Amino acid sequence: MDASQRIAQVLRDWLGEERPMDDETHHFIESTYGALGDEELAALLNGDDAEAVTLREFMLEPDEAVRMAVEAEALENQTDEADVAAALSGLEPVLAVRTALGVVRLPLDADDCRMLARRLRLGWVPRPELSAGAAEGLDEEQATRLLVRCRQRNLGGEDTPEAQARFLGDLARRSGSAPTFFTMFGRLAPLLSGLESDEAVYAGLQMHKATLARALRELQEFERDLKRSNMETMLLQGRRIPEISADETRATIMDIDRACLAVFGRTEVLPDQAVMEADHGSFDPDEDLDRIFDIFG
Predict the structure, then answer these.
(1) Who is most buried in 54, 259, 268, 284, counting CB within 10 A?
(2) Among its keywords, does the record have Coiled coil (predicted)?
């Protein structure tokens, strides 16, 4: 059995696990078609129209456990997604979805197999800077998890800027022991797009930090003015409600600082450090959303 066949077997086993439908897919189906019985759902999924294809795409997103199982094979043996898709199709895979009433089984065709194989990004090859940093700063399982997440985001590979791989590798090497490392990675990874040099990575992260700080400042000004006025008046004046989470924004700023200090040995000081001071009595857009709707009701 070659690598393509082994990967195909992993996928086939995962498809047949009778997993419950995820919340996103369940919500999409109910909001679009209403409550469906198993036979109606099976008929819908087995269609060949655009709606059926969209639903199958929702369900054919490999989870991290599958990606972890595939990663070692993908790294050790260069495999082509077409070979994996062909091997998977030859196994006659069936997607088993558990519902409230039972289990719906959906045989996958060759197009489904190709889509599933394509989502694994098997052509991605990590740059040495990333691989070395992951191996030095993380244990084996965590290093694999980092490579999986980089593969999924197409970060740190041979067809992406070397500076991104170097930054991620150095971050893993110097901060990998932190219990919040993967949370930090999740916050910073989307910020690296388009940054092609070490200087650009540093400048890009600092620019994003400044943008977040401005958003926090706007939120604080909104909260301050709200104490002097009231929600109805401010909304009628055309004041925009800041749509950010203050806690998450501060956490991202702190992660940018930690990462830049770890990798570059420096970071920029915010002009107004007061934005980093939490006020637990602050206005929360999420919690006060019902009130806002009532105002305009």
Answers:
(1) 259
(2) yes
State pLDDT tens for residues 158-173: 999 999 999 999 999 9
Q: Please give the residue range of the domain that contains residue 166.
A: 128-192
* Residue 260 in this model has a pLDDT that exceeds 80: yes
Evaluate whether 256 touches 188 at the Cβ level (below 8 Å): yes
DSSP code, position 155: -
pLDDT tens column, 117-144: 999 999 899 999 999 999 999 999 999 9
Q: Which of 169, 192, 215 is the last residue of a domain?
A: 192
| HSE value, Cβ hemisphere, 13 Å, CA-based, for 21 | 26
CA pair distance 138, 174, nearest whole angstrom: 10
pLDDT(44) > 80 = no
- Going by C-beta distance under 8 Å and a sequence separation of 6 or more, which residues neighbour residue 175? 137, 181, 184, 258, 259, 262
Judge whether 90 and 123 are in contact, CB under 8 Å: no
219 and 177 together in one domain:
no
Burial class (CB in 10 A: 0-12, 13-18, 19+), 138: buried
Q: 223 and 163, same structural domain? A: no
The one-character DSSP state at 107 is E
Other CB atoms closer than 10 Å to residue 113's CB: what's the count? Answer: 26
Domain count, the chain: 3
33's tokens: 């078609």
108: phi then psi, degrees, rounded to nearest 5? -95, 140
Percentage of the chain modeled with pLDDT above 90:
48
Give me Rg for the CA atoms of the chain.
24
